[in-house]
Design brief:
Two copies of one chain form a homodimer. Chain A has eight helices and six strands; from the N terminus they run αααββαβαβαβαβα. By secondary structure, chain A is of the alpha/beta class.
Chain lengths: 201, 201
């Protein structure tokens, strides 16, 4: 491949490190940015640098900009702190929060590796959850809800976390399985249909 | 949707403006960047800002970092300046240059709109090409090669440019059509097979 100027290659390398951006797309993006001109470059550069100001909640690891250590959800006295929903990603939290049906708090564990072994930083997060459950809730939460994807991998991740967290709550539950609203019975897979039968109400 | 902190929303908006990055992917990327930490943020931010130093060739509109106005290819005395290959994008130029089979120069016209009407800045580029052909080559290049994609849209773009550029070269050609190397006859479409028959050698 023809050598790109160093400043371009640097951007390409940095962009290609991002998830779901491949090396070819990184090259296309770099050329797009150059053609957009100095104002757009400045806007993107400064907004990325601005992310350094974002803090991470000391309790649930969601982002925030508050004075203290807690995010908006953890700092909200109207939320039930005795119910904890464990999610993989911030975007999962956003989707669940968007339902406006949940009034407990969250805990972001990060993407659980397919190997089933938690990363060291994830073990630290779990230790901090155990500490907060001990200090703030007297040792046990009322409920821990494991909100992993309804996939084979998600089920595996749930079963792993189930063991790790069993002692921290009176009840450890998982999100319900069944027919997705708007779906069609004819086109539902066996697993989903089976779950909808088992859990009929 | 739950409101994101302003600095996060800014990055999401800037990223979502980039080609082939959707709003959901922009949110995921923003969270990824926050979790990567200050050093990675600084590296990406500074590398993006560094693109402002990149210059665009006054003759072919490819990028460069040279003292003068010309890119490496245009400034190379070994290249035949009387043959001009018109490409849409910098990445097309890179792929063609990578073949090491072409010794002429290039001209980047930018993506021709599907409407068939050239953008004002594209008309300015063509005017500058006409000027350079007049001043540097005495009015006519030996050949202009139109290197558009072998698609219906690319054919349309070629026919448009053909008219605009006909007077600027003794010959206006297009890249050859036929069977792609490594392809299989059984799975080739009719157009490609037809072209391979017509242009057999």
């Amino acid at each position: 491949m023809m050598k790109l100027p160093d400043p371009v290659q640097k951007v390409v390398d940095n962009l290609a490190e991002l998830p779901s951006i491949g090396p070819r797309q990184a090259v296309r993006l770099a050329f797009y940015l150059i053609n957009e001109g100095p104002e757009d470059l400045k806007a993107l550069s400064e907004s990325v640098a601005g992310l350094a100001k974002i803090k991470v909640c000391t309790r649930c690891y969601f982002i925030h900009q508050n004075e203290g250590g807690l995010c908006d959800i953890c700092a909200n006295p109207a939320r039930n702190t005795r119910i904890i929903m464990v999610v993989e990603k911030e975007t999962d939290l956003l989707s669940l929060e968007n339902t406006k049906k949940y009034t407990g708090r969250y805990f972001i564990i990060g993407q659980v590796p397919k190997t089933g072994f938690l990363e060291p930083w994830q073990k630290i997060r779990i230790a901090s959850l155990a500490k907060s459950v001990k200090e703030e809730l007297g040792g046990q939460a009322d409920e821990i809800i494991l909100a992993f994807n309804p996939t084979t991998l998600g089920d595996f991740q749930s079963s792993l976390l189930m063991k790790e967290l069993a002692s921290l709550a009176k009840r450890v539950s998982r999100l319900g399985r069944g027919l997705p609203t708007g779906g069609e019975i004819e086109f539902s897979d066996d697993e989903t249909l089976g779950a909808s039968l088992e859990r009929r109400s």
